[in-house]
Every structure is written in C-alpha cells, then in structure tokens.
Specification:
Two copies of one chain form a homodimer. Chain A is of the alpha/beta class. The first copy, chain A, is built from ten helices and 17 strands. In chain A, helix 2 runs antiparallel to helix 3.
Chain lengths: 349, 349
Amino acid sequence: MGSAATIAASPSQVQAISLANDGVVLLDQVRLPHELRYIKIMSADEMRHAIVTMVVRGAPAIGIAGAFGVVLSAREHAKAYPDNVPACVLSILVDADLLAQTRPTAVNLQWAINRMKRVMSDFTGDVAETLCKALEQEAQAIFDEDLAMCEAIGRHGKEVVPKSAQILTHCNAGALATAGYGTALGVVRAAFQVDPTIHVYASETRPRLQGARLTTWELQQEGIPVTLIADNMAAWLMKQGQVDMVIVGADRIAKNGDTANKIGTYSLALLARAHNIPFYVAAPSSTIDLSIETGDEIPIETRHADEVAWIHDETICPEGIPCYNPAFDVTPAELITGIITENGLIKTP
Amino acid sequence: MGSAATIAASPSQVQAISLANDGVVLLDQVRLPHELRYIKIMSADEMRHAIVTMVVRGAPAIGIAGAFGVVLSAREHAKAYPDNVPACVLSILVDADLLAQTRPTAVNLQWAINRMKRVMSDFTGDVAETLCKALEQEAQAIFDEDLAMCEAIGRHGKEVVPKSAQILTHCNAGALATAGYGTALGVVRAAFQVDPTIHVYASETRPRLQGARLTTWELQQEGIPVTLIADNMAAWLMKQGQVDMVIVGADRIAKNGDTANKIGTYSLALLARAHNIPFYVAAPSSTIDLSIETGDEIPIETRHADEVAWIHDETICPEGIPCYNPAFDVTPAELITGIITENGLIKTP
C-alpha cells in the first residue's frame, strides 16, 4: 500500500469499499476511529495486502474486496494483452487465486472469486476490454446484491428484536464489514428505526478491537446508543439481566448451522445459553457453505502472536511470552437460536 | 505518591510489599512488566493513593497494604502525641477508616484493618511509641501469616493438579497479589515443583491486563511455562481440550461459597462447567466473609470508564462512548469445584 493514494474523507456516510474508474477506494479500518482515511488500491497485489492487514475486513466486505481485486487485475492485464483473451485470463487467474488465499475462514471470499472465475470461463469474446467490463459488472453486482441482502436481513431480523431491547454484539458485523448497512448491525439499524429505545452493548473484541474501534464508531455516526464492554464482562452483564439478545455476524456457516465467526463468539453463545438469552447469527446466504457438513471442516485462521502481545505500539506482556491467537471460533448450531439471512429466519435445530 | 522515593530494583525475588523502618516499599504494579520499580510509601495518605490506583493490588496484598498503612499512620501520630495514647489512637482510626474505604470488594482489607483496630482497643499502655511497636508487630504478623497461608494453599492445592496439567488462570493471584508465593499461582508453583511438565494459560484480564502484565511476568521469572490468551479465547481453548483445570484467586467468599473475584471469573466458571473442566478458587481463610450468607451481599466496585476506553495512553474507541467497568463479578458456589485454603480443600455443594 506504499503507493496507495490518500483521498479526501467523506464522513457523511459509512461506506468501507467502492469501485472507482481508477482503483478501489477503501476506508482504512486499521486507523479507525482515530482517523477517517480513505486509500486507493491500485492493483490486485495491493488488495491482497489490504485484506491480510485488515485494512478491509468482515466476511462480506472481503468477498467484495476479492472481486474488486480481480477487476484491478483484469484492468492491468487487459492493457497488456488487449487482443489475447486466453493470456489475459491466465494472468487474472493467478491473481484471483492469490486473492482467494489471503484469509481462509470466511467463505464469502472464495464464493465471490468463484463468481468472477465463472464470468471468465463463460466469456466467449476475443477483446480483453470486453472481458474486463464483464468482470466489473459482476463485481459491482456482488456489491449491489450484498447491500440489498443486508437490508433484507435487517427487515427480517428486526422482527426478533424485543421492544427496548438491550442487544449485545461482538466484533463488527456492520456497514464497515459489508457493502453497507451491515448484517448484525443491519438488524440493529432496522430495529432502531422502528424503536429508538433499543441499546447496544459492543464487546471490544480483542485482539484487534473491532467492537471498540469500529462498532461503537459506526453506531455513534447514526446516534444509536452503544456502551462498550471488555469481552470478559459479557457474562456478568447477562447475569444482571442487562442483555435481551445477542446478535453476531458470521464468516462461514456449515450445512448443519455450525457457525465460524470472530474469536469470542462461541464464548458468548455458551454464556447466552447459560442465561437463557436468544443468540442470533445474521449473514447473507453467501456465507453458507453447503459443501461442508459441520463446523469441524471449517479452517480456522491463526494470526500472528503479536496481535495479542501488542496494543498501540507497546507490548502488554514481557518479551518472550508466547501468545495464542486464533482469529475465529466455531459455535455449534445447537447454541444458535436462529440464523437471519436475506431470505428470512432459519431456526436451528 | 509525588513524594515517593524510587529505590533500587531487586529482580532476584518477587516481593510486592514490605515494611521498612522508614516507610513501606511497594513494587509498582502499574509499571510492570516494562519497568521493575520499587517506590517507598511514606504516609497512610500515600498508601491510600497506591491502593486506589492499583500500584498495589490483589486481595491479600491490599489487606497487608492497609495494615502497613495503619503503621505509617501510627508512626506519624506517635511522634505528634508521644504521651497521649487516646489522641494518637483517634488520629490513627481516622486514617484506618479511610484506608478501609479505598476498595470495597476485597474483604481482606477490612479484615486486616479490623485486626489493627483490635490492637488499639486492647492496648492499655500510655506510651504511643509502644502502641506503634504493637501495631508494627501485628502488621508484620499479618504479612507473615499470609505468606505461610499461601505456602499451605500451594501444598494442599497441588494435590488436585493432574499430571502435565494445562492450567488456565485469570488476573494475577500470585506472589504480586499476596505477601509472596501467591494463592492460585501458589498452587501452580507447588505443582510445578513436583511436575515441571505443567503449563499455564494466562488470560490477559482486561481492562487492567493483570494476566498479561503480571502473571506472565511472575511465572517467567521462575521459568514456569505460560502462554498468554485474550479473555475471549478461553472457551475455544477449552473446546479443543487444551484446559485441564481453571484456578483463580478470590476477593471475597460468602458463607455459602459464592466468590467475588476479578471481572471475567464468572464467565470462566460458566465456560469451565460447559466443558466439564474443574474450576478451583484458591484463597486464604481471611477472604471468607462469614458475616454474609451469599454473594448477593458482596459490594461490587465499579471503576472509571477510562480504564476500558484507554490502553497505553490512547483510546480504543471514539470520544463520547460510555463504557461499563465493573471490577469484579460473583461466581456462584455451584460452579466452583472446590475452594483451596490454608486448611485444605473445601468442596462446594
């Protein structure tokens, strides 16, 4: 991202990713909430770096980022091979596969890149520029569909939100994690529109603090009341009757409903069950991986120990202490009250 | 503490608090692990400040700190009223009550100060200096007894530690939290001595990060293997079969066994139960408050929201976000496998 240009920030709406004629614009989520900075991604390689370093994050958003990364690759190679579609496709496929490998847990990334690959395999023309346009169209469709799915998730999800609900959410499954509007926070947004007495608890979500940095910021933009808690406070909050429901996003959902999501989700699901609190997952159907039967088959990304050991450029522990850093965990379907998709509520067994 | 003198650090042994002829020496636990700095506390007022700001922390250690604070008060007032014991006592009692109010949850503080008050009410002499010596003796006895109790807790506790155990602990219930040796970490130390294949997981313990800063440091000093995790990773670790037992300290134990301890303890107890993992509390009998029937009667200290919002002089959330910050929670006795005291293991109902 050394070459990524900084462009003017637009604080009026939360949009984390968009396709421009000369690149892909990303809201730099590593710098939030202290700095609202948009950067322009100019190549598939820069996009890979942005996904790995979590400049863009959230399962639906990295799906879109992957598709947009393929577009950047197509633009580059269409210039190199304007009349040689097979050569152009081969080059794009190399980039596409590298993009697909950036993060293993969220299935939306594979799903989006597979859609882009299908456009290439279906393409019968001999002008690379035309292929490029077709890929742009598909990528933009992935974006547009995601936004529409989030809004539909909000519509369905608000039906399960009780009056004046105290809603606990984890990590950020919001506009920042999607094309816009959000999944779990889409439900919050839709519920808030009809009932402004709801209140959100955001768990900070160590190690990367997406709850503290992103969810509070996103909700604050729209005046939705939110209180921050440390992750280890959720059980006590539940015990005091301060949580009416838990709602989280998802990175991958197996056929049986087992759900991989940000580390700490499984913990919240167990704690919600212990307190008889409904626990919902909100996700577009692109998150459901019908190729796997159970959560046991979901690869769990382990990230660098330094993410645990370092906060704000300072360590929290002595040098030489090993840290465990799984980025996700799997919540078994039996702990999930329901999965809210764009098609409605799926009650889990 | 502006006037507190800095004295040379002695890294060869972990002792967080000691009574000297010219003050009380505290290892500054706010600065660990980055700086090993001892400060000298010169007055009861400085001691209050040290307790409130958590320069000294841990239920047994703040009991000792309270008693030592009373000694500092006695030394000061014995000089002012060398031949007027009643006037001296009245002045000391003011300081003693202020010290007792610094932190409401840990009962050891009240318990230690009550012992100091009893010395004053039992005193029949008319030389303030003699009273002062009697108070010094009592305070040192509290310290010495605590150390002996911790060693006894270790002896009893090691019997419940399985061979090559993976032990999860929360916060710091170690030498730093006591006169030395520790309660939960006393059990770890005693177990490690007979079985060097044990391994500890320390949960970081947001917001003040005592697990990350203190427990890892303390265990590292003695070469006891320890891995740091974020608080929200415990459930997933348990799910993978990586935790054989949980052991924590306590700030106050009600007559029925309900136990107040650092926020996040209740969460770990629920998660341990869900995975059929034994959950132990290790504490000296001074932590048991027979005056209350259940945990419902334990006052839970709420600390400043900034402890959640700020890490290392930078905020983790936007300005204006409210934070919830209970310093402790209560674990019901039915989730506790046993309470390890200096007298042996108490099985909870």
